[in-house]
Design brief:
The complex is a heterodimer of chains A (372) and B (78). Chain A is α/β, with parallel strands linked by helices. In chain A, the strands form three sheets. In chain A, strands 2-1-7-8-9 form a five-stranded parallel sheet, with helices on both faces. Chain B has a single domain, classed as SH3 type barrels (Roll), CATH 2.30.30.140. Chain B has one helix and five strands, in the order βββββα. A five-stranded antiparallel sheet of chain B has the order 3-2-1-4-5, with no helix packed on it. The chains are: A alpha/beta (372), B alpha+beta (78). The interface between A and B is large, with 56 and 40 residues. The complex binds iron/sulfur cluster (SF4). The site of iron/sulfur cluster has 15 residues of chain A, from α16.
């Protein structure tokens, strides 16, 4: 397929890898974090770590929206789903993440709750049109890639007068999460590992552009290279990071110019700014409570806010006993360090959120562990 | 759920919706987040929405850079 196959050429991949080995100094370690779950998935799927010299270590970051949503938010969604008049629409992966009890959205669905797995919030809108006597709630999660679609869905609901459609908003922001890995007091308390550079998100950056990372690179003196999700993109970004580290630079560079511009998709950004505003604080799994790291629906659109309509309040809950997702999301531990990995916790019956989505570090390790 | 894919616009239905070809499979995509889209454009499709267009010229430049690098570096390292 165009824009895919030519970025998967194994021969060129090996040559880029050889250049990395040639340029990376054996005297030091390059700890590079890929923020995005999409990159984590690519790194495992194509065995990229195996191509790298020992001095270059990939650390898997928190950029999987399913992984970072804390247990308390799953409980909120389960509570919504159990309301008699509510049809809860959720992206598929969220349905298998356990809440603080043993329940998941899938298990309460089996118990009779009206939970629908949707691929898109367009499907949630359609269900709201088809069932005017039901309260249709869209369980909105994700980074800047899913936020514009949710904003558009609210705008569509306003235009169509769909008063039975609301959104349970859990949208989070990438730049604040990246910063928190290096600086939040929570992370300091629990420890973090030194990171020499970041591979910046692919599709998040198509929306927000490369500019938002400039402050981070400058403030924290860490290089950021935005990369596409194909293996050659990832390898090229690693080479660019090694070069920046070698020359003591900390700039934002863009490997993914075919899709990412400096300013991003302005139309999508304007729409998001119209519907959403910054939330003062938001709890993340593994990263703790981070100020101004998430979005909420503006008061003007409160009619479309499920938390307000159904009086949902957030209560922080601990991660499942024994689950190391928190340390894994911060790059402190690897999935096999968790005693439950592959035994009590598998993709078929996940204990923690990192084992659910294909972009979660535990699920990626489990699926491709022959490469690790 | 973050996996997004390049898709080729094959038909514009209205200002909101288009048909795309994804590896031979026809799918519907919402194009309302983009300013202007034409048949033949490649877009990045995610949860049913086109997030941005792919720029064929920039893609060609990146691939060209890989090739250059292929020649020069391989020669230097071998
Ligand atoms: S293996 Fe399961 S329980 Fe252990 S950290 Fe990963 S998701 Fe949590």
């Amino acid at each position: 397929m165009k824009f895919i196959d030519e970025f998967r050429d194994g021969d060129i991949a090996r040559k880029i890898a050889r250049a990395i080995s040639g340029e990376a100094s054996p005297e030091r370690t390059y700890r590079l974090m890929e923020f995005c779950g999409g990159h984590t998935h690519a790194i495992f799927r194509y065995g990229i770590q195996d191509l790298l010299p020992d001095s270059v270590q990939m650390i898997h970051g928190p950029g999987c929206p399913v992984c970072v949503l804390p247990v308390g938010r799953i409980d909120n969604a389960i509570a919504l789903a159990k309301l008699p008049n509510v049809t809860l629409c959720s992206y598929g992966d969220m349905m298998r993440v356990p809440g603080s009890g043993k329940d998941t959205l899938l298990s309460v669905k089996a118990g009779g709750a009206d939970v629908r797995m949707v691929y898109s919030c367009l499907d949630a809108l359609r269900i709201a049109r088809e069932q005017p006597d039901r309260e249709v709630v869209f369980f909105a999660i994700g980074f800047e890639t899913t936020t514009p679609p949710t904003a558009l869905a609210i705008q569509t609901a306003i235009q169509e007068g769909l008063t039975n459609f609301t959104v349970f908003c859990n949208h989070v922001l990438t730049p604040s999460a990246i910063s928190s890995i290096l600086e939040s007091p929570y992370v300091r308390e629990y420890g973090t590992i030194p990171i020499d550079g970041f591979i910046g998100p692919a599709h998040v950056s198509t929306v927000i552009g490369s500019n938002p990372y400039a402050y981070f690179a400058e403030e924290y003196q860490r290089p950021v290279v935005i990369a596409g999700f194909e293996p050659l993109d990832v390898l090229q970004a690693i080479l660019m990071l090694v070069r920046q580290v070698n020359s003591g630079r900390h700039e934002v560079e863009n490997e993914y110019t075919r899709a990412v511009t400096a300013t991003g998709n302005m139309k999508a950004q304007r729409l998001v700014a119209e519907i959403f505003e910054l939330r003062k604080t938001f709890e993340w799994r593994g990263l703790g409570t981070i100020p101004y790291s998430a979005l909420q629906i503006k008061a003007a659109y409160a009619d479309f806010d499920a938390a307000q309509r159904f009086g949902i309040t957030y209560l922080s809950k601990p991660d499942p006993a024994g689950c190391e997702c928190g340390a894994i999301i911060r790059g402190l531990k690897k999935p096999p360090d968790c005693a439950l990995f592959g035994s009590a916790c598998t993709p078929d019956s996940p204990v923690g959120s990192c084992m659910v989505s294909a972009e979660g570090a535990c699920a990626a390790y489990y699926q491709y562990r022959s490469h690790t | 759920m973050c996996l997004a894919i390049p898709a080729k616009i094959t038909e514009l239905r209205d200002s909101q919706m288009a048909t795309v070809d994804v590896g031979g499979v026809q799918q519907e995509v919402c194009i309302a987040l983009l300013e202007d889209v034409a048949v033949g454009d490649y877009v990045i499709m995610h949860v049913g929405y086109a997030l941005n267009k792919l720029d064929p010229e920039e893609a060609a430049k990146t691939l060209e850079a890989f090739k250059e690098f292929d020649k020069v570096k391989a020669a230097a390292l071998e």
